[in-house]
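Checklist before submission:
- one chain only
- standard amino acids only
- sequence pasted in full

Submission:
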Amino acid sequence: AQISGIDIMDLDDAALELMRNGIYAEAGMGCTGPIILVNDANKEKAIVILGENEYIAVEKTSC
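Returned file contents:
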């Protein structure tokens, strides 16, 4: 699975953060920009980790 929306300058750091949390990840370039590749089973957990560490924007449910 691929996760987009990560700044190119943060791409390698984001992949390392996922690996520190037990998720194998690869940084790469997709058709429209930088992406992180992860196993399909880990995509949702990876999105949470990236959001918590401010590598991607996450939707807030409260103000």
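Reviewer check: The longest helix spans residues 11-20.
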